[in-house]
Structure formats: C-alpha cells, structure tokens
Amino acid sequence: MNLSVQEMLPQELELVIDYFHDATPEHLEMLGVDPTRLPSASVWRERYAMEYSRPVEQRAALVLIWKLDNAPIGFSSADKIKFGSHANMHLHILKSEDRRSGCGTACVVKSAQLYFAMLKLERLFCEPNAFNVGPNRTLQRAGFKYLKTHNTVPGPLNFHQAVTRWVLERDK
Predict the structure, then answer these.
(1) Domain spans of the chain?
(2) Where does 3-169 sit in CATH, by number?
(3) Model confidence, pTM
C-alpha cells in the first residue's frame, strides 16, 4: 500500500468539482454543504486558475490530493489562510467504500505536515459538521486537539450548522 499526499495539479482539480457536483443530497447534508451555494463548474475552474496563478504565500486556498497506489482516493483543502500563522483544513474521501479504511488518518497527518511546511503555519484548524462522525474521529486520531462545538456557517458552501472545532499546533 503506497499512500501519497501532494499539492493537487491544476489538471487534477476537476476531481474536487466533480466530487461536490456529483454528490448525493444526503452526502452534501452530512458535509454541511448547501447545494444551492455550489458554484458552477466553470466558475470553480476560473477561481482555481486564479489561485494557481499566485505564489503560495498569496493564495486564499491550497488543495492537496490523496493517492493510494497512485490512484486518487481523496483530497484536502486549506482556506482562511493567514500565511505564517494559521489556516483551516477540509478533508474528503471520494468514495464511500474507501471511508472507514484507516487511510484518512494517515492522509490527514501527511496533509497537516504539508500545510505547516508550505504555509509556514503555527496552527491548523478544522471544523467538520459536528454530526459527521468520520472526520471528527479522524482528526482526533491524527493528533488534533478538540477546542469546542459551536454553531456557525463554516464556509461559503455551507449552511448554518453545529461544527466541532479542532486544532493542531506546530511542534515547538
């Protein structure tokens, strides 16, 4: 089993767009995503093209791809980036049959290492839907510390919901 995590190439970004646009309403609800807030594929492509034209230090988002034996199994994205300080992380396994396999924890650990290195972070936050057990357990297993559960709109794709706030701090 060969697991790798790396920055997603521009030609791989379609995977993210398809993941959200092809998701069932039930899956989007579990993620806390409001389907009416999903941008069109063309708008999403334009946003990614703009992000990838900037140096990492100036990006509003960074996307990583997770591969098992060189085949994509998931991805992570970071947003709310304050270079040199903190960012928020999101995590997604593409297929339901790949969830609960244990790969997610290893991918989150590798993703966090990349975010800390590429964005020079001191803290990495993650706020999954409080009722989505999988990512909450994964974050705990990956060494994130529980901070609180609160109600918020975590991002531009989301509806108001209960989220669990986790943090991972740079090793001193």
Answers:
(1) 3-169
(2) 3.40.630.30
(3) 0.94
